[in-house]
Amino acid sequence: MGPRQECQVCNGAQSKYKCPSCLVPYCSLNCFKKHKEIPCTKSLSSEAKPSIVLVPERSYQVDEETWVLQREQLESIVVSKKIQDALNDEELRKFIYKIDCSTDPENELAKAMEGEVFCQFTDKILSIVSPQEQSSLAETK
Predict the structure, then answer these.
(1) Do residue 126 and residue 77 come from a single domain?
(2) Does 70 lie in the same domain as 133?
(3) Euclidean distance between CA atoms 25 and 106, whole angstroms
(4) Residues 17, 77, 113, CA angle at the centre, nearest 5°?
(5) Could you tell me the pLDDT band of residue 35, with boundaries at 50, 70 and 90?
(6) Are 79 and 129 in contact (CB under 8 A)?
(7) 103 φ/ψ angles, rounded to the nearest 5 degrees
(8) Does residue 118 sit in helix, strand or coil?
(9) How many CB atoms lie within 10 A of CB 68?
(10) Domain extent for 103
């Protein structure tokens, strides 16, 4: 892995991340948000990059409004190196795909939660979106 590039949004820090669409290097969530104010296009890089598939939004009914993630939380998940690394696991990707394609996603989620790989993945997500809640859950286990 070569040296890190400078953030092309603020030009003031080393980049830690790259835009999933155009691969522009950026250093933080704030720079990511600023970069996304102007729509970017997918890079035509010859390197094999993971593709991001946009699916139409679905509406879900939830019991608690606090279960719905805010945009900042979702963006934190997207830029997380822990999450990106976890998604390299083919078994995990199969679980996610099966849940997403299922006519009974709650049942598929329950099955996936029986597996260690999926539980570890959900713990990583919780540690990003709700670090205080995650630490209190760990104490009760």
Answers:
(1) yes
(2) yes
(3) 37
(4) 135
(5) confident
(6) no
(7) -80, -15
(8) helix
(9) 9
(10) 65-140
Residue for token pair 């969530």? 29
For residues 75 and 25, state if they share a domain: no
Which pLDDT tens digit goes with each residue over 58-111? 566 667 777 777 888 888 888 889 999 999 998 899 888 888 888 888 899 999
Put residue 23 in one of left, alpha, beta given phi > 0 → left and psi -120 to 50 → alpha: left
Q: 56 falls in which pLDDT band (50, 70, 90)? A: low
Beta-ladder partners of 42: none
Q: Are 15 and 69 part of one and the same domain?
A: no
Select from 118, 87, 99, 25 the least CA-distant residue to 58. 99
Per DSSP (E only), the strands in the chain are: 17-18, 25-26
